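Team,

Forwarding the record for the chain on the shared tracking sheet. I've put the sequence and predicted structure together so nobody has to dig through attachments.
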Amino acid sequence: MAVPSAAVLRLFRGSPSALNLETRLSFDASHPPPSALRSASFTHPPISFDRASFTGPSFSPEEFLGDRRHIALDELKKELQQSLRDLKTELVELINLDYADFIDLSTKLVGVDEMISGLGGPLEKIEGSVQAVRDALNDGISQLEEELENRAELREKKVYLQLFVNIHESLEKLDGLLKMSNEGHPRDGDGNEEALAEGKLIERVANEYTQLRYLISRASKTPFVQKIDKRVAHIKDTLTQSLSRSLKLSYERVMSPNSTAVAENDLSQILRTYVSVDRADEAEQIFSESVMAPFLDKVVNRQNLVLETRTGATPKTDIASARNPLENMYDAILAFVAKDCAKVVAVTTKAFHGTKANLHVDSIWVAVATAIMKKIPFIFNPGIPEVFHKNYSCTIHFVSEMESLCKTSDVLGRFRAHSITSDFLKRWQLPVYFQIRFREIATDFEDATTATDDLNANVNVSEGLIMTPSSALMICINLCWDPSVYLPGLAHRFWKLTLQLVARYVIWVKETLQLDISANPVEAPDVATSPTPGGRVSTSTAFPAEQQSLKTYMYFYNDLRNIISQVANTFNDVIRTRIPGGSRTEQVLQDSLRESLSPLQDMLPLLTQRVCQVLVQRCFEPLYDNVQAITRQYRATNKEPPSKASYFIPTIFTPMLAFFEENGNLANSVATSEWTANVVDNVTSKYAATLAKLVSDNKWFEDYNRRMKKSSRLRPTTAAGENAMSDGDKIRLQLYLDVEQYITEIQGLGVNPATLESGRELRQITDPFAELLKK
C-alpha cells in the first residue's frame, strides 16, 4: 500500500489522531517503503530474551537482570534498544495495514443523519401507544386492588361477626349452666349448689369458660367485648366461688377418716379443672386457707410453747436435759402432714403433673414456715445459747423430716431452693450464737492460763493431765464439739476456735517454760574445764530450786505428750465425724491440726534435755567427789591393794532410779528408756573424762616422786618393798575394778555399753590396768 501523500494528511490535520499520526511518522520522500522496513527489522542477530516476558503479570526488572548476569550491560542495552526499534517498525506497519479502511469510513457515513431523522416519527407513535396501554393496565390493577381490599374487609367483618356469635352462644351456655339471667344475674331455681358440687358439671363449666376466654382474647379491643366485660367478670366470680366451695368440700371429704375412692376422684376432677383454667396456684391457696391455717392456729402459738426465757430462772443443766416443747409442736405438724394430708398430697401430685405446682412445697411448707416466723419469732433469739441450741437442733431435724416427705428429687430440689426456705434458715442468728459461745469458751480458758503463776498451785490431775491450763484446753476443745454446743452450720467457726485454743496454749507453754528456764538454768559440770583450786568441782546449785525445775519439766512433758495424743484422738473420734466433707477436706484439716501441734511436739526434746541435765548432775556430782577420794585413799596410806569395786559404784544411778520411781506415771516406758540411755551416756562420758584426768595426774605425781628420789639419793628399798604394789598401781587397780562394776551396773539398767562411744572410751582408759590383778 502506498504511503499517503501530504495532501491527504492535510485533510485530517484537524483530528487528534491525525496529528498524532503525523507527529509519529513524518512521511516524506526520504522514508523507505514499508517493505524495506519489514525486511530491515529482521537483519539484526537474535537477542537473549523473549518479548512476551515483558507483558507477563509477574514481570520483575530485578529478576530479568538477575537471570542475565552472564551478559554484559552494554550488550544487553544494545539488544533492548534494537527490540525497541523493531517494535516501532511493526507499529508503523500495523497502522499502514488498516489505513485505507480508515479513510473509507468517512465516505461511508454520508447520509446517515437523514436516515436517523426518518426513523424518529414512527418510534414516537409506538411510544405513545405503549404508554396508553400501560395507563389502562394501571387503572385496571387499581380497581382490582380496591375490590380485593373491600373483599378482605368483608371477610374480617364476617370473622368478627362469627366470633361475636360464638361469644354470645358461649355466654348463653354459661348462663344456662350457671342458671343465670340474660343480664348476668343468677336465676331462681332449686338445686344450684348441688349441681355445682358435681364434678362433671363443674368441669364442663370450666371448659366452657376457658373457651370463652379464648374467644374474647381474639376480640379483646372491640366494643362488643368491652360491653360484656361486666357480664364475663360476673361469670368468672360465680365460677370461682363455686369451684372454691366444691374444692373445700372435696378437701374435707378426702382428709376425713371415712374417705372413699369416690371423694378422691371428685377432688382429682376438680383439681384438673383448676389446671385446665391455669389456676393451680389458687387450688394451693385454698388448701392453705381452709386446711393449714386453722390447724396452724391451734398448734403454732405461744401458749403451746412453755419455754423459760428469763436468764437464771432455770439452771443450764435443767434446760439442756428437759424436753423442748418445740419438739412436741413439730411432732404434731409432722403427724398432721404425714397422715392427714397424705391422700390430698397424692391426689394433687397426679392432678398437677406437668405443671410447676406442688402442694407439699407451695402450700404446706410455706404455710408452716410462715406461721412459725410470724407467731413464735422468739425461738430465733440467741440470748440463751442453751435454749437456742435446742430450738435450732430440733428445727433442723424438723426441716429434714419435711424434706423426707418429698416424693421425688425434683420436689426436694424445689423445697430447698424455695425462697421461704432460705428466709426461714436466715432467721437463725448463728453468728451471734457463736460469738456468745466463743466468749464463754475463750474466757474460761484464758482464766485458767492466767489464774496463778505457781504451777504447783495450778496442779489438777484429770485425764492424764496435771496442770490446770492443760485440762482447761481439753475441756474447751471437747466443749466446742459437744452435741449440746456444736451446730453443723458453724463447723468452720468451731474448727477455727479449736486451732485458736491450741495456739493460745502453745503461747502459754512457751512463756511459762521460757520464764522457768531463764530463772533456773541447769548446766552439768564440766570436769575438764572448770575445776576448783582444790581439785573439786563446785556444786553450789541449790537442790530445792533444782527439784522444782525438774518437777516443772516433768509436768510439762507429761501434759504436752498427753495433749498431743488427746487432741489427735478427739479429731479422729469426734471432730472428723461432725465436719462435713470428703477425704480431701479431712486431709486438709489433719494437716492444719498437725501444724498447730508441731510447736508442742518440738518442745518435748527440749524438756527431755532439761530433765536429763538435772539427772546427770544429780548422778555425777557424788561420783566425781568419790572418784577424787580414791587418790587420798591409797596415796601414802600403806593400805592393802583393792580386791573389789568401791562402795559408791552401785549407788551412782540411785538418784535417777528414785526419780523414775517417784515420777514414773508422768512419762511412758519409751521416754524412760530414752532418758536412761541419755543419762547413762552423759554420766559415762563425764566419768571417762574424770578418770582420764585422774590417771594423768597420778602419772605426773609418780614421775615427780621418781625425779625427787633420784635427786635426793634416797636409800634403796628392800626386796619386800620392791615386790609390793605401788600406790599408783593400787589407784589404777581400784579404777579398773570400779569400771568393771560400773559396766555391770549400766547393763542392769538395760543399756548396752558397747553401743556407747563413752563406754568404749571408758574401757580404753582402764583396760591396760587389767594386768594388775595378777600381782
